[in-house]
Amino acid sequence: LDAEYRALLEVVAASLSPADAVVLDLAVREGRGLADIAEQLGVQQRTIARRWQRICRVAHEVLLPPDPTA
């Protein structure tokens, strides 16, 4: 990952719960799939899928905040 991409990931990770930050790290930095992450963390894949949805929502909010002029 290049420096700019890593910096954006850090901004997003700082806005997440510690558990969600771990999922982000495993998925993006280590390239693991959701099923693999679920197995590694000892939780159901459905749990990781929900966390991933939350991570995506937070990333969108952090990286593309609403336009106050809209």
Q: What general outline do the C-alpha atoms trace?
A: globular
Q: Quick check: average pLDDT?
A: 93
> In whole angstroms, how far apart are the ends?
34 Å
What's the β-strand tally? Answer: 0
Compressed to H and E, one letter per element, the order equals HHHH
Which regions have little confidence, pLDDT < 50, spanning 5+ residues?
none
Task: Kindly state the percentage of residues in helix.
Answer: over 70%
> Beta-strand percentage?
under 5%
Architecture overview:
With 70 residues, the chain is mainly α. The chain is 73% helix and 0% strand. The protein is built from four helices and no strands. Helix 1 (3-14) packs across helix 4 (45-63), helix 2 packs across helix 4 and helix 3 crosses helix 4. It is globular and about 45 Å long. It starts with a helix and ends in a 7-residue tail after the last helix. The model has no long low-confidence stretch (mean pLDDT 93).
